[in-house]
Design a protein that fits this description.
The N terminus and C terminus are likely disordered. By secondary structure, the protein is of the alpha+beta class. It is built from 21 helices and 23 strands. The two termini are about 40 Å apart. The strands form five sheets. An eight-stranded mixed β-sheet has the order 7-6-5-8-4-3-9-10. A five-stranded mixed β-sheet has the order 11-12-15-13-14, sandwiched between helices. A five-stranded mixed β-sheet has the order 17-16-18-19-23, sandwiched between helices. It has four domains: about 200 residues, 2-Layer Sandwich (Heat Shock Protein 90); about 170 residues, Ribosomal Protein S5, domain 2; about 180 residues, Rossmann fold, CATH 3.40.50; about 55 residues, no CATH class.
Length: about 675
């Protein structure tokens, strides 16, 4: 492939043919890696593993591979092996090179363009393997074909010697790719994250039933393996761990229509949250697409039809909405089709129009059968939807009473909010402060131009166990919604956000952590876009005040306190100050006061500003969701109804776990 790049010179009249660069082979990839893998940061490095592993999964989907292994090497590389057919090694008729070398050095070369290599694949453009090769300092490909082992090496996409035939091996067929990401491309680092690899492979194992997947980290000797005979049924059960389900029986259907395969698994739980995972050829389409539209349309139609037919929905009652019906729904949709129309290389949305019809057809027929054959389950599903409908109407009335359209102009803001004078959201920050006492200090000590203070009294409602109507009856939650200016539920609008930094400031104790978790549960469940936008932060107030004469120092942990004391002792020793070796360490350090704060309320306005609110000194932890699935499971454990699950979680981590270490 060639890519033309026009470079503009300082003098306009100097523009001529010499300014046209022609990039040959894999040069375009190294020149513009972001066009092919999205970024050159953390995500980009791991996308390389995904590209190669996806090829292995395609072999499994096609019915040729049964085992896939990924090994993170001690020298920074990764080896990915499958027992599929092995990339062909015969001479390619167009390039004159071996098919193996062609697949690894020519963009848009692969077996996924209708030539009979794959009926279904996650690859779309045929650039995956060659892109990985281009962005690696070294890549080693080993292929076994009919018991013969072949090997070829590359450096930054350039072939190093010819294809070698190394002779017989015990394996019959398969492909092994070892590569090392190029640090000159991935300047933020090339270290692989074991957790990311495990999560990715677990998902692929769920989606490809009957394939054995293993991962090993030679750096730590950690290893895990996955095998799910139930496929997406097992996945749905996994997503519902810790939740009370309407029925242990998972609705599942697998049906081929024309040249496409449709798989759907559905199970309801007692929560108020919808979790639907739509996949196309094992690719998670996070922005949905035609398969998701078809599923939702059919689900709404089938449940309304059943509710009418069974008399659960009266003649004069209006139909249940899609939102009513999807409350507490957990579902996985997997479609496999020969020519997927994704939006771009990142494949976030499926566009094939015929897939909507296929999914609707399957759901209309088979989910109707399921409800008819399981009347008790059907009644519970419809009953849950009817409760959701009533709650929706109550919530709408409550919302209309508490949310005013003029919130951006300061109208209808909560009385206890001490707003900032700036009207520029990017400069403004809202401190959500535990308790009126700390709120008073924060109001006195803040920078009133950019810092707003909202004190909360007591613990806010646990929204994990409450619908929107009840939530809008809670004064603290309502105050927070009105202060932020984004609305709630179907009136939520991120563009109305009045502060681009929402800072949760609670005591550094168990109660403070509980309040922070309650608030984060609210943001995660009802204002996810605020979290995803990077607007939520946790303040880190100090645990200790250390005075030596007129000098003040703050420590944020026991370890930091001890480190400061050690340094003070060493400094005094270096100055020749005589030490009482028998005395306590605080006296040896010359400390005149060591105070442990029990809460924010113990700090005066000046201390609170110095330690927790001054942008030059404060420590903030940004709340990010790296794995939404894992975050959902954490909130279910911590805030849900399953006491034993929560107890076990806390007991196993009580000694070491802090709020930031939840790692979601």
């Amino acid at each position: 492939m060639r890519e033309l790049i026009v470079t503009k010179q300082k003098t306009d009249n100097s523009y001529d043919g010499s300014q046209i660069q022609v990039l040959e082979g894999l040069d375009p990839v190294r020149k513009r890696p972001g066009m092919y893998i999205g970024s050159t940061g953390y995500e980009g490095v791991h996308h390389l593993i995904k590209e190669i592993a996806d090829n292995c999964i395609d072999e499994a989907i096609a019915g040729y591979a049964t085992r896939i292994s990924v090994t993170l090497l001690t020298d920074g590389g990764v080896t990915i092996i499958d027992d599929g057919r092995g990339i062909p090694v015969d001479k390619h008729p167009t390039t004159g090179k071996s098919a193996l070398e062609t697949a690894l050095t020519v963009l848009h070369a692969g077996g996924k363009f209708g030539g009979g290599g794959y009926k279904v694949s996650s690859g779309l453009h045929g650039v995956g393997s060659s892109v990985v090769n281009a962005l690696s300092t070294k890549l080693i490909a080993e292929v076994v074909r009919e018991g013969q082992l072949y090997r070829i090496e590359f450096a930054q996409g350039v072939t190093q010697g010819s294809l070698q035939k190394l002779g017989k091996t015990d394996r019959l067929n398969g492909t092994s790719i070892t590569f090392y990401p190029d640090p000159t491309i991935f300047k933020e680092g090339v270290e692989f994250d074991y957790k990311w690899v495990v999560n990715y492979l677990r998902h692929q194992a769920y989606l490809t039933k009957g394939v054995y997947v293993s991962v090993k980290d030679e750096r730590t000797d950690n290893r895990e393996s996955f095998y799910f005979e139930g496929g997406i049924q097992s996945y749905v059960k996994h997503l519902n761990i810790g939740k009370d389900v309407v029925s242990e029986n998972v609705f599942y259907v697998e049906k081929q229509i024309e040249d496409s395969m449709i798989e759907v698994a559905v199970q309801y739980n007692d929560t108020f949250v919808e979790i639907v995972k739509p996949f196309a050829n094992n690719v998670l389409t996070i922005d949905g697409g035609t398969h998701l539209v078809g599923f939702r349309s059919a689900l709404t139609r089938v449940i309304n039809d059943y509710a009418r037919k069974s008399g659960l929905l009266k003649e004069k009652e209006e139909n249940l909405t899609g939102d009513d019906i999807r409350e507490g729904l957990t579902a996985v949709i997997l479609v496999k089709l020969p020519d997927p129309q994704f939006e771009g290389q990142t494949k976030n949305k499926l566009g094939n129009p015929e897939v909507r019809r296929y999914v609707e057809q399957v759901m209309n027929e088979y989910f109707s059968y399921y409800l008819d054959e399981n009347p008790n389950v059907a009644k519970r599903i419809v009953g849950k939807a009817l409760l959701a409908a009533r709650a929706r109407k109550a919530a709408r009335a409550a919302r209309d009473n508490v949310i005013r359209k003029g919130a951006l102009d300061g109208l209808g803001l909560p009385g206890k909010l001490a707003d900032c004078s700036s009207k520029n959201p990017s400069d403004s920050e809202l401190y959500i402060v535990e308790g009126d006492s700390a709120g008073g200090s924060a109001k006195s000590g803040r920078d009133s131009k950019t810092q707003a203070i909202l004190p909360l009294r007591g613990k806010v409602l646990n929204v994990e166990r409450a619908r929107l109507d009840r939530m809008l009856g809670n004064n603290e939650i309502v105050s927070l919604i009105k202060a932020m200016g984004v609305g709630i539920s179907d009136q939520f609008d991120i563009s109305g956000l009045r502060y681009h930094r929402i800072i949760i400031m609670t005591d550094a104790d168990v109660d403070g952590s509980h309040i922070a978790t309650l608030l984060m549960t609210f943001f995660f469940r009802y204002m996810r876009e605020v979290v995803d936008g990077g607007h939520i932060y946790l303040a880190k107030p100090p645990l200790f005040l250390i005075r030596t004469g007129t000098k003040k120092m703050y420590a944020y942990s026991d370890e930091e306190r001890d480190s400061i004391i050690d340094q003070l002792i060493a400094d005094r020793k270096e100055k020749g100050v005589k030490q009482d070796l028998e005395g306590d360490r605080t006296k040896q350090a010359g400390i005149t006061m060591l105070q442990r704060y029990k809460g924010l309320g113990e700090m005066d306005a000046e201390q609170l500003w110095d330690t927790t609110m001054n942008p030059e000194n404060r420590v903030l932890v940004q709340v990010r969701v790296e794995d939404a699935e894992k975050a959902d499971a954490i909130f279910t454990k911590l805030m849900g109804d399953q006491v034993d699950l929560r107890k076990s979680f806390i007991q196993g981590r009580a000694k070491s776990l802090s709020l930031e270490e939840l790692d979601v």
